[in-house]
Specification:
By secondary structure, the protein is an alpha/beta fold. It contains seven helices and six strands, in the order E-H-E-H-E-H-H-E-H-E-H-E-H.
């Protein structure tokens, strides 16, 4: 499958059908979300750790408008298309869904992943959608966090 076929600019019936097909074959679905504006070693370690938890790995990617609302008008540095391409090109990622809301709650409600993950800088009680996943017998995990890696800090250093 071409990496471009992994990208969904909006969550639609085709994406839902693909996930349902995976589930019907017994695949364990792992989900995370983020801006992934400037991919760094912290992201790579986290994504690798997350992917190993299940059979199919789905990323909810904040749209450009969503990133601007969350991080300010100077962000994102890279467009949603560019960020989606980079993520989708990684073999460990099976689907990238761009979402426009400030949180991935509606996406999580639609997918109902088996495992919901965030980086170690998030406690489980802070993870959006945790209650949905737990209510459906899934797992919620806060994974490793590498100190000193942050897109925001990289951008600050570049500006100096």
């Amino acid at each position: 499958m071409s990496y471009k076929n992994k990208i969904f600019p909006v969550f639609n019936k085709k994406a839902i059908d693909r996930i349902q097909k995976w589930k019907s074959k017994g695949a364990k679905i792992v989900f995370t979300n983020g801006c992934f504006d400037i991919l760094h070693s912290g992201h790579i370690k986290y994504l690798d750790e997350a992917a190993k938890l299940g059979d199919k790995f789905v990323i909810g990617l904040n749209s450009d408008d969503s990133v601007r609302r969350l991080k300010g008008n100077s962000r994102p540095i890279k467009s949603q298309e560019c960020r989606a391409d980079v993520l989708a090109f990684m073999k460990l990622i099976d689907m990238v869904v761009i979402f426009d809301e400030d949180t991935p709650l509606n996406l999580i409600k639609s997918i109902v992943p088996d495992i919901l993950v965030k980086g170690g800088d998030w406690s489980i009680d802070q993870i959006i959608g945790a209650n949905i996943v737990l209510k459906n017998a899934g797992e919620v995990k806060s994974l490793s966090f590498m100190e000193g890696f942050s897109s925001t800090n990289i951008i600050k250093r570049m500006k100096k």
